[in-house]
Amino acid sequence: MDDRECFDRLDSTASDTEDLFEHFERRTAADRTYHALPNARHGIERGTVVVEDTVVRGYPKIPRILVLDTGIPTFFENKLAVEEKLDGVNVRIANVNEPLAFTRSGYICPYTTARAKELLAPNEFFCDHPEQMLCAELVGPETPYTTHDYEEIDSHTFCVFDIRDCESGKPLSVSDRRRLCVEYGFPQPRLFGRYRPPQAVDGVRDAIETLDAAAREGVVMKTLHGEKMAKYTTESQHHEELAYAFSLPFDRGREFVFSRLVREAFQAAEFEADDDQLRERAHRLGEAILLPMVETIRDAANDKSIGERFTVRGSPQQIDALLEHLYDQSLTLEIDEITRENDEQTVEFVKVAEATRDQIHYYLEHGIHRD
Amino acid sequence: MDDRECFDRLDSTASDTEDLFEHFERRTAADRTYHALPNARHGIERGTVVVEDTVVRGYPKIPRILVLDTGIPTFFENKLAVEEKLDGVNVRIANVNEPLAFTRSGYICPYTTARAKELLAPNEFFCDHPEQMLCAELVGPETPYTTHDYEEIDSHTFCVFDIRDCESGKPLSVSDRRRLCVEYGFPQPRLFGRYRPPQAVDGVRDAIETLDAAAREGVVMKTLHGEKMAKYTTESQHHEELAYAFSLPFDRGREFVFSRLVREAFQAAEFEADDDQLRERAHRLGEAILLPMVETIRDAANDKSIGERFTVRGSPQQIDALLEHLYDQSLTLEIDEITRENDEQTVEFVKVAEATRDQIHYYLEHGIHRD
């Protein structure tokens, strides 16, 4: 496709081709060259990709409700569906002659592609619906990007939460999408219910309490046509993310931490009417902050690895392709353990958090900083 | 004094007068015009002031020890004195025909000047030592800048922790300074002891435990000549500052919060060998973060004032001059209560935290943000 056609099909707010395409990055993967938009620009979502004759639209950013009581009725005018939001990696699986899996920021991930082919077997779906893409969360303890544990998942799985027109990004309605997932056997997130906005406040609150008790992430609310979305998360999710951030304090941005503390405080102000409950919650929050940070400092003092530990599973070719893909992104990896059973390899590795490792070692040795 | 003379006397690393003086701000107070350096530049400390024929050197930034065990022996080669660091406002009182009090960032504060004249009566000292300045902490519940409570202070007092050459900033030795404070009746900070570096680790730790139990700030360590300094603070101080920051979450920078969490974690890693103690500490930390933030959200929901509350005491003229000085700095004040007894006024006011107030009101009304 030539530049002009591509520009027209992307339907951006940019004034001309150059104005738009200067923001795209040229990348290669598995003998394919593609162009990806690393950040949202000119009305085009982050992670939008042009590969050969196909446009794969990025997944839109979902606004976050901070206060259920005012947020839901202010944001939603019409009936909404409340579905579980899973803690994993958002990937789009699109049909580019073959199924390819794209990460949120528009990388073709060879490992995720291979797993998607195996676990979702999407060929029949793409045969019937070549213009659609599957938007799915890759979840489970064995993925190369996230490690949230779900009781029901031993290794990893995909959960299809959206089906969208690949080029325009227009979603199917909630009911059409859920029907198709059943038809093609795709796992999909739990549906808590459909509510008018005033009733949704209690509906979401009940769902959140159920999910929080099981240490799960939260919900996404969507109008029934699927166009308008908002998310809301549990206390346990906020604490899990803070624990993660404070286990690598010099690698995660100050903004990351601050935004999670803000959502935690607004939820506490809305949910915890009882002072003792609020105090208990504050104790859990304090543990989420201090214990991981102290553990990391002690690990550094004992010369242990500082970073995130992942386990992945696949054929030797798939594992090699994944590691190459990660090295391409300039990550420093420590490969710890490789086991092989029949054709399947299991690899444990650490993505080294260099800033945290180096900063803590510096402070431990010199004991001082000028602030 | 002309520019060239001033440049020479400042003894900076700047290449010429313009290079240095472009960083100075012109200010006026009580019919005086003066020039102040709002940020450290060219080897000149922040808050350095040129007023008429006098150079008033800024107070140097004190490096912070993060890990006592390595920090003290790395930083100090020679014997050091360990003195209490008080939580108040760092002011310099210099003799410019009359005693004037300068804030850390180089403002002449009329209120602090008046209080210093009254409480320290420094005229005799300046008569004997015209070239020196008193570096003092203004502390107590009744000051316009800080509100840390000390059991022994009802209103406010000055504590002289340094005496320095006004122009060069060169300090007196610890023993000369302490002797002069006794001679002229200036209150001064507690001296915990003089130690060689290896012994200072335990000395500081004992002092910190004593101070922490009384919810006091921490210590400053100084070589006996007074030239080299480092500070170290208590858990209760970290928590107090975090509670303050999270009571005004959108006014205090992310950096403020983060740096205090880092010092807290390094101290916890060094001090809390016992897991249960570490967990208890985490609970206190969580309370310091969540409870003030939730309280501020609820205050905003109930349309209460959002900001810091201060009480000051003085003659009507002193109070007027202070309020004018604060308005000059573009602060929004809510004056709540004025009482008068004989010649003395007591005024309560709130420095309004506009960013926090507006941001929280926005979230409470709209319930959503896009992050």
UniProtKB/TrEMBL annotation, chains A, B:
| NCBIfam families (UniProt xref) | RNA ligase
Domain RNA ligase, which positions?
A: 80-233
Keyword entries, A-Z: Ligase
Q: Where is the RNA ligase Pab1020 C-terminal domain?
A: 244-365
Name the domain of life. Answer: Archaea
Q: What does the record give under GO molecular function? A: ligase activity
What's the protein here called? RNA ligase
Extract the InterPro entries matched here. Lig_Pab1020_C, RNA_ligase_dom_REL/Rnl2, RNA_ligase_Pab1020
Coiled-coil stretches, from where to where? none
Any keyword Amino-acid biosynthesis? Answer: no
One Pfam annotation, family name?
Answer: Lig_C
